[in-house]
Amino acid sequence: MIPLSHYLIVSAVLFSLGVAGVFLRRNLITILLSIEIMLNAVNLSFVAFGRHNGDVNGQIIVFFVMTVAAAEAAVGLALVIALFRHRESLNPDAFTSLKW
Amino acid sequence: MPETIAFYTFAGLAILASALVIGQRNPMYSVMLLIASFGALAGLYIGLDAPFAAVTQIIVYAGAIMVLFLFVVMLLNAAKEDGAEYDRTHPLRHPAVTRFGSLLALLLVAQLGWALTRASDFDTPVGGKSGSATVSSVREVGKVLFQRHAFAFEATSVLILVAMVGAVVLARKEEQPQ
After folding, report:
1. What's the predicted TM-score (pTM) here?
2. Which helix (H) or strand (E) holds B112?
3. Are residues A53 and B128, on separate chains, in Cβ contact within 8 Å?
4. Partner-chain contact B50 A93, CB within 8 Å
């Protein structure tokens, strides 16, 4: 059997990779992908804790997180498309003005 | 020990694929690698006796959300990230600020490691606690989801609707005022 801590370590490593991606990358799509990595890392720890405590709620919150992730991806990608139409760039540094 | 081998294989695969997502300059490869990472996570969910979570992970995440990402990457014909665009005069790129941020990151890692080593029952095998039933059945998940969390479930449907309308409005081409 795998100890719970191993699942938590995997989750922590994945979350750190997501945070690093948000901070280091200069491409809006890669930044959104890094956010998805973070959401999945949290999902993994939810399922691991739910299994550890014999609680079905650990799995249920995963579905809610997935729903929120789907909504976030849809709105985020629409924003990326709208921004790209204005600036022809995906670099976040290109979007420094609130109005143009 | 097939489950131990499966755990380390899937965990290694998930971490490797996610690291490569961060390392890729071409967004198309990043999306493909993230799909691989989600597949490995679905394998981990099966090891945790959560088959429904595993299947939704593949169908919803890898099948729907990532396809949305792929469509946008292809639609925008996104070029590779350009290293020359890096703005070194930005105030947040000052070396002192960078060092402070690295210090904070190291502190966070130390804190996480400390918390993981100090916690009491983290080294007991997952699910090995007495009285923890296997909660794998979809019937059980559905019962709790549609009874105890019925309101949250309905609220997410409104959230999806709002997100859909918002995405359509945001991505619409603006008409030129005549």
Report:
1. 0.86
2. helix B95-118
3. no
4. no
